Amino acid sequence: MTKTVNPPVVDAAAVALATAHLLAATDGDLAGARRHVADGVQCWVNDVHLDGIEPYMEGLAQFSAALEPGGLRVVAALGDDRRAVILTEHMPVGAPSPFPSARTIELDADGRIVRERVVFFDTDM
Asked: How far, in Å, CA of 14 to CA of 49, rounded?
């Protein structure tokens, strides 16, 4: 599967870092993805709260394992130097179609993800 980043994508620091992070995670490069994340990261995924780098990376590893390598499509993204909003589609292994998500990402002063909020949408609703 080919990686696709479609317009509109705003060329801003937080968007670039978030996109690189998502691409690394989708491709199974967890060490690469981890470099983008602050130790004290706070993450909310639907109704789940992950507090700190270890729970975050455990969740990311489970998520990454369920995806086709390269199965990320960035539908839209915008942001500035510290915040990004990204709409994506992820292709799960063996699934007939991708599932959408929306996320906000906030960077700390070192340019690493310190807060992330993710909503995965059920396409069968």
From this structure: 22
